[in-house]
Design goal:
Pfam families: Competence, Lactamase_B. Its main location: membrane. Keywords: Cell membrane, Membrane, Transmembrane, Transmembrane helix. It contains 29 helices and 26 strands. The longest helix is centred in the first third of the chain and has 29 residues, at about 60-85. The protein has an 8-stranded mixed sheet, with no helix packed on it. It has a 7-stranded mixed sheet with strand order 18-19-20-21-22-23-24. Helix content is about 50%, strand content about 15%. It has 5 domains: about 1-85, no CATH class; about 90-200, OB fold (Dihydrolipoamide Acetyltransferase, E2P), CATH 2.40.50; about 205-350 and about 415-470, no CATH class; about 480-520, no CATH class; about 530-650 and about 665-785, 4-Layer Sandwich (Metallo-beta-lactamase, Chain A), CATH 3.60.15.10.
């Protein structure tokens, strides 16, 4: 009996194709990162290993040796040659010189939107797209060059966002070097509209019509679930609010918005279940499921993880049609071998890696862990519900750590809570996509039915992201991923020894009993008695001024996008905002306006005399109307008071007479409202983005600028007069600036001037949220120390 059980377990997982998959993937990835010759070397080693296996002559080694031999030969010759050809493509040399070019290309994938945070007069949102394409002909500086490689187009979303795979277009622009580790020869930065646009294949046109129909149907839902549903069903996050996307990332639910094997399993399973209900045979069931999966692949587009899952699903359906219930592991290994040989760039794609490893974890680890839990008395359903997300988290943690630079500590819990609704929302969304164009009423009913599931996922993600210590910072890139993998291997190996397991368990108990309660019950933020906080909102401004009443504070500016200012206010426990001041109407100061209202009562919105840019004024006034709050204009000399806080308006000292369309960025900055606040920690000067002219006006009119704390103008730019800074004579200067910004903020000259004055300078890109609180000799500063990453 024992031998029969062991033999059955061996048959459950057929590992014969695994060495070939590992060798092919490793050779291709190493070739992309280190050079074509590395792929040749690893391929040659695989060929030698295959020869050794074949020489043994045993039946169980023949299949593994043959597969390894074939994969090794492919990696050593065709794959290595493709990597070499891409590296030596003439477009690459031209891109290094930054010359102009005209390319005739065929679109390979759907345009991928690039989200950009708002700044100055540029509204936040998607302004450009990235489009992978294959080059047909190329002209560089007026001279034709031979290139049949790949190019990546960076183009305006308005003219290029609607293109479909299979279309041919002509694009002109400036060549830029491509990112390493890919087969892309060059990047083409395009400004103009496409020329000579060819027709798209009929199936792509049909898929686009279905996708557009889903977006139209989702409009009946509120903004957040309406943007999430296409992401869950089709992986289309173009309408997803950035706040929700960030919460899904922090809570470990990002994979739900990337179409992969899970979606295909759900759809294929639903079709097979329907076929079983009507008593269809295996071949008919496989044909029906295969047809549906093929249509779904066309619908969502040829993403690496989707193609991987499609190949694997096709193999499984073929086995079903032939009456053989093959293991999932050989299908996965074959899919890896075939796909990295067909498209070597998949070997370096994070989504592909996540998909493969997650599937491997579900096949190899989840059943064992579920059985182990069942043996310990856990009901089968709960055991599977715990084992599946835990296995997926464990095997994908190194990749996620290297890709995102963070590790979600709440991922297992959030995935367990999300799991029950993933299948229903996927099936309902796909049905609505297919039915909607022909029967809009039925499509709307299905969307309404999917709405509660989408809201539940948003709720889970939001609460998971808000949990104390939800994410752990980790080194990014390949080294970070390798470190995470090494730590994971060490933990797995250590867990095999009883004494080490006991020590690890004791350590976890100590952490749970000391560190976690300390963070949850007595968090170190915010500090007691805070009077002012400069919120870290990235490349933008947001200041919170406390009143003497707990939970009540005045907010000045809201940052470049929703989410960060809301998180800051939530951490501070602010529930009532009697006045929300917008210093001026640039996007990095008003972008988070809507999120200030989330769960809070806002008394009024106050602005200065500026009305430019026009789109921003329309946005602010429209938000005030929607929220039913008054919109007031502040004027020079006006004074506002609350218990423990008073504000005096010092500027601007003029109102521009130019129409909003004629005002440039400098004029808008100089129209910023300048406030002097009397707080429990002393006098604070809030300067918006005033530049040289506005600063000179304040000095010329003899305004009393002295303050204990200075919010440095314009994110610490070089447009700060030393005389202005000297007139303020602050003890502390706060600079609100985004990490890795491309504007040179803060300027070294401005920081140096403040340093020579003996001023304590803080920066949100380094210090995170920064609080000012009263102390005996003057204001004290407390830093939260969790800065936001570079702007997207």
């Amino acid at each position: 009996m024992k031998l029969e059980i062991e033999e059955e377990a061996r048959r459950d997982h057929d590992f014969r194709l695994v060495p070939a998959a590992v060798a092919g993937w490793a050779a291709t990835l190493a070739g992309l990162q280190l050079g074509w010759w590395v792929a040749t070397v690893i391929g040659a080693v695989a060929v030698v290993g295959a020869a050794v296996l074949l020489a043994r002559g045993r039946a169980r080694y023949v299949g593994a040796g043959g597969a390894l031999l074939l994969v090794g030969l492919i990696a050593a010759v065709p794959t290595a040659l493709r990597i070499h050809d891409a590296a030596s493509d003439p477009l690459g040399a031209a891109a290094a010189r930054g010359v102009t070019a005209t390319l005739r290309v065929e679109i390979s994938e759907r345009p991928r939107p690039i989200h950009q945070a708002g700044y100055a007069d540029q509204q936040a949102g998607t302004r450009s797209v990235a489009i992978p394409a294959r080059v047909a002909t190329a002209t560089v500086d007026g001279q034709p060059v031979e290139s049949t490689g790949r190019a990546l187009l960076l183009a305006p979303v308005a003219e290029w966002g609607g293109l479909l795979p299979g279309q041919e277009v002509t694009a002109s622009g400036r060549l830029l070097p491509a990112r390493g580790g890919e087969l892309t020869a060059a990047v083409l930065s395009v400004r103009a509209a496409p020329v000579g646009v060819g027709p798209a294949p009929w199936w792509q046109q049909a898929a686009a019509a279905l996708r557009n129909s889903l977006h139209s149907l989702c409009a009946i839902l509120p903004e957040e679930p309406a943007g999430l549903l296409p992401g869950l069903v089709l992986g289309d996050t173009s309408a997803l609010p950035q706040r929700v996307e960030g919460e899904f990332k922090a809570s470990g639910l990002t994979h739900l918005m990337a179409v992969s094997g899970g979606n295909l399993v759900i759809i294929g399973g639903a079709v097979l279940l329907l076929c079983r209900l009507v008593r269809a045979g295996p071949r008919l069931s496989a044909a029906a499921a295969g047809t549906c999966l093929a249509g779904f692949l066309v619908l969502v587009g040829p993403e690496p993880s989707v193609v991987r899952a499609g190949v694997m699903g096709g193999i499984g359906l073929l086995a079903l049609a032939l009456g053989r219930r093959g293991s999932a592991l050989p299908a996965l290994a074959f899919a890896v071998c075939a796909l990295v040989a067909w498209d070597p760039t998949m070997a370096g794609n994070f989504g592909f890696a996540l998909s493969v490893l997650a599937t491997a974890g579900l096949v190899l680890l989840a059943p064992r862990w579920a059985d182990s839990l069942v043996r310990r008395g856990v009901p089968a359903g709960y055991a599977e519900g715990l084992a599946v997300p835990l296995a997926a988290f464990v095997v994908t943690a190194p990749i996620i750590a290297g890709m995102a630079g963070t590790v979600s500590l709440v991922s297992v819990v959030t995935n367990v809570l999300a799991a029950p609704v993933v299948a229903p929302v996927t099936v309902l969304g796909v049905l609505a996509t297919v039915v909607g164009p022909w029967w809009p009423g039925a499509g709307q009913v299905l969307i309404h039915a999917a709405g509660p599931e989408a809201r539940w996922l948003i709720t889970v993600a939001r609460h998971g992201a808000r949990a104390p210590g939800a994410t752990l910072s980790w080194p990014g890139g390949w080294w970070g991923g390798l470190c995470a993998a090494a730590l994971l291997v060490a933990v797995v190996v250590a867990a095999r020894f009883r004494r080490i397991r006991l020590l690890v368990a004791i350590g976890l108990v100590v952490v749970l009993l000391t560190v976690v309660p300390a963070k949850v019950l007595a968090p170190g933020w915010p500090p007691d008695g805070w009077a002012m906080v400069e919120c870290d909102v990235g490349q933008g401004d947001a200041v919170v001024l406390a009143t003497a009443e707990p939970g009540r504070a005045v907010v000045v500016d809201t940052g470049p996008e929703p989410g960060p200012v809301d998180e800051c206010l939530r951490r501070l426990g602010v529930e009532r905002v009697p006045l929300l001041v917008l210093s001026h109407l640039h996007a990095d100061h008003i972008g988070g306006l809507a999120s200030v209202f989330d769960g809070r009562a806002v008394g009024a919105i106050a602005v200065g005399p500026g009305r430019a840019p026009a789109w921003a004024w329309q946005s602010v006034s429209g938000e005030a109307r929607r929220r039913g709050v008054p919109l007031a204009q502040l004027s020079d000399g006006q004074r506002l008071e609350w218990p423990g806080l008073s504000l005096e308006v010092l500027g601007p000292r003029y109102a521009t007479t130019r129409a909003p369309a004629l005002q440039d960025g400098t004029m808008i900055n100089n129209s910023s409202v300048v406030l002097r606040a009397e707080t429990a920690a002393g006098r604070v000067l809030l300067t918006g983005d005033v530049e040289l002219a506005a600063q000179a006006d304040l000095l010329a009119e003899g305004v009393d600028l002295r303050a204990d704390v200075l919010k440095v103008p314009h994110h610490g730019s070089r447009y700060s007069l030393p005389q202005f800074l000297a007139a303020v004579r602050p003890r502390t200067a706060l600079i609100s600036v985004g990490a890795g910004n491309g504007y040179g903020h803060p300027s070294k000259s401005t920081v140096d001037v403040l340093g020579t004055m003996g001023v304590l300078v803080t920066r949100t890109d380094v210090d995170g949220d920064t609080a000012v609180l009263p102390e005996g000799s003057g204001p004290a500063v407390v830093r939260r120390g969790e800065p936001r990453g570079p702007p997207r």
